[in-house]
From TrEMBL:
The keyword DNA repair does not apply. It is a single-pass membrane protein. It comes from the Bacteria. One of its GO terms (cellular component) is membrane. Signal peptide: none annotated. SUPFAM superfamilies: Band 7/SPFH domain (SSF117892). The chain crosses the membrane at residues 6-31, 59-80. Residues 76-249 form the Band domain. Keywords: Coiled coil, Membrane, Transmembrane, Transmembrane helix. InterPro entries: Band_7, Band_7/SPFH_dom_sf, Prohibitin. This is Band 7 domain-containing protein. It is found in: Membrane.
Length: 381
């Protein structure tokens, strides 16, 4: 659309320029001819002077008339750039309600004009400064104790496009200096007088910012200004109070450091005590475990000895029983076979004798006499 507007303006301007050039050229020729006419009393030359060309007023007028429509159409096209909005102002009735948003709009040439406003975010900044040589740019206020403080404040805001008619008809042209700055200054000055200076510097700084942001947004919204954000960047304290506060903060920091070190040492002592107690408990547990192991070992040994004794007793009993049974069986066998006695005696008398001849007559065998003497002695006893 801008290209069309510029083309129409170029076409109209070209036609007007052509009409002007034609008229100027004809006028120049006319003046040249008149300057070359002979004066009164002079003899005319052989060649007659060229007749003067008439000025082409009609052609110039036609070109001017042809240039009017493109220029009128171009002037009736209004393109509002992005980030801006406009208010239509009539030369007859004054400002007209309604907002012209970014884009193409049609206006009445030579009657309507458009006042553009920036609807992007704007920033109002007040920098804190405690140097008396510099111009006080910061927001100066007082604390509850009556001490002077300088605040560094930043407010981000924008104009409400829906209320541009009201802004144009009721607010000053410099919204930043004449509207935003007084509202921000008064809001913070009303708040800071209710807080001690130490709260302004550290304790309730964010609380003050939030309350001030609410008040600023409420006041400016009534004038068609939308507040996006309020930032309290810095609080500049008086020099003497700042030095005293710094010394006090250093002492508090030192006390906190000593407290932390003391707590660390107490924790180290507690850890050492816990480690010693843990080592003692471990030693006690190990001693108890060893005693329990020894007791279990002694009990196991006692059980083992008891089992061995019982086993030995059982073995002895079984051996005795076996011997008794053996003797009984041997007595039965000997009773049934008396000749075995002689064999047994012979085997026990000499291990060198491997073969023994026993006479058939048992009565004449010496073993019979031995047995009889043994049996007789035993009976006598």
């Amino acid at each position: 659309m801008l290209l069309l507007k510029y083309l129409l303006m170029a076409t109209g301007a070209s036609l007007l320029l052509a009409a002007a050039i034609i008229l100027v050229h004809d006028l120049y020729l006319l003046l040249k001819v008149r300057r070359e006419e002979p004066a009164d009393g002079e003899v005319e030359t052989a060649e007659a002077a060229e007749p003067a060309r008439p000025i082409r007023w009609r052609l110039g007028l036609r070109l001017a008339i042809l240039a009017a429509p493109p220029l009128v159409i171009a002037l009736s096209i209004l393109v509002i750039p992005s980030g801006s909005a406009g208010i239509r102002v009539s030369q007859i009735s004054g400002p007209l309600p309604g907002t012209l948003y970014p884009g193409v709009h049609a206006v009445t040439p030579m009657i309507d004009s458009v006042v553009l406003y920036n609807i992007r975010d704007s920033v109002f900044t007040a920098a804190a400064s405690d140097d008396p040589k510099k111009k006080p740019e910061g927001l100066r206020s007082q604390s509850k104790e009556g001490l002077n403080v300088s605040l560094a404040v930043t407010v981000r805001y924008r104009l409400d496009p829906n209320q541009l008619y009201r802004i144009h008809t009721s607010l000053p042209e410099s919204v930043d200096e004449d509207v935003v700055a007084p509202v921000v200054t008064s809001a913070f000055r009303e708040l800071t007088t209710n807080y001690p200076i130490r709260d302004l510097f550290s304790g309730k700084r964010d609380e003050i910012r939030q309350i001030a942001a609410g008040r600023i947004a409420k006041r400016l919204s009534a004038d068609g200004i939308v507040v996006k954000e309020v930032i309290l960047r810095d609080v500049q304290l008086p020099a003497e109070y700042a030095r005293g506060l710094e010394a006090m903060l250093l002492k508090e920091q030192e006390n906190e450091r000593l407290t932390v070190e003391l707590e660390a040492k107490e924790k180290s002592v507690k850890v050492a005590q816990m480690e010693a107690s843990s080592q003692r408990d471990i030693a006690i547990k190990e001693a108890e475990g060893q005693a329990q192991a020894k007791l279990l070992d002694s009990r196991a040994e006692s059980e083992r000895q008891k089992l061995l004794a019982e086993a030995e007793e059982v073995r002895i009993r079984r051996v005795a029983s076996a011997n008794s049974e053996k003797m009984r069986l041997e007595a039965v066998v000997l009773k049934e076979n008396p000749m075995l006695i002689q064999k047994i005696i012979a085997e026990r008398l000499s291990d060198k004798v491997q073969i023994m001849m026993i006479p058939a007559d048992v009565k004449n065998f010496f073993a019979t006499d031995v047995l009889r003497s043994a049996m007789t002695g035993h009976s006598a006893q």
